[in-house]
Every structure is written in structure tokens, then in C-alpha cells.
TrEMBL record:
The keyword Acyltransferase applies. Residues 49-86 form the Transglutaminase C-terminal domain. Pfam families: Transglut_C (PF00927). Signal peptide: none annotated. It comes from Daphoenositta chrysoptera (varied sittella). This is protein-glutamine gamma-glutamyltransferase. GO terms for molecular function: protein-glutamine gamma-glutamyltransferase activity.
Amino acid sequence: EETVTMTVTYAEYQPHVGDQDALKLTVAGAIQETGQVLAKELRVRLHTPELTLTLLGPAVVGQEVAIQVVFQNPLPEPLSGVSLRMEGAGIACPKPVSL
């Protein structure tokens, strides 16, 4: 029995992720003495960062309320083309906020 550790860097898998939030990893090995081939597949779901919403004042019927949205970029590179959109009851036409 032997344990082997392999590291997959973000730079290696980033070009292949696209809009998906998962990686499919396959490992294969061959036994020289028998010629038997072994393979195993693993689907890994990438954790997506959370958005945190905080009211910045009291929520009163008929009045505006400011909401703070916090998002932390977990990637080792800046994001571009990011937009946030808030939806909810009574919000007739949600407008995206570009960041």
C-alpha cells in the first residue's frame, strides 16, 4: 500500500472550469505484473463564496433602506465584468450594479 499526493493548482484547472462549479478528476494506474488497469473518477464541487447582506438602518414600510453586500473574491486574480442584482417582493424592476 502506498499513498501518493498530487496537487492541482488553480492555474492548471482554471481554464477548464468555465461556468461550472465542479471538477471531474480521473486517476488511472496499471499493474505491470498482471496488465490490469485500474481507474477511479471523482467529482469535486468547488465551494462558491457567500454573499453577506446587512441592513444599514431600520426597515420601515414606505421608506428606503440601505443594504450592504459583502463578497470576498477567493481567486488569486482580480475579477472583471461583475454585476450584482437584487430581487424581492415589491422591487418591480431590479437594476444590476456593475463592479
